[in-house]
Structure prediction request, 123 residues.
Amino acid sequence: MHQPLLNNLLEAGQRQTRPSFECSLLPNPRDLFTLWQEYEFSVGGRKPAKDFTTRVEPRGQVKLKYSRRKVIWECISKLIRSGYSADTAIDKIYNTYGRRSSVTTIINRMRDDAKRGGHPLLN
Prediction:
């Protein structure tokens, strides 16, 4: 961009910003595999959720989604540390909470179980 044009844009109160989706989460992941992909590697050009920093992001709706999904991400990470692969860890969660359960249902049930010390099959 030419310098005079850039100065005119800045003087008019317009700023160049990064795309707003960079530090966002998927609106409705269909399965836990996609949710793990979003956390570990990124989906659709977004920043991986594991790389979000607490000083800058997440904020607002992204923060709410992040905090709700964190219970799944932590469970998968814990299972990976204990020797499972990511796919096997996710299958273990599905076997515990039901293959036909939605991501939201699994999150809600895991959050309830976390209040009681976690599900015995996932500890």
Observations:
- Residues 31 and 102 are 7 Å apart (CA to CA).
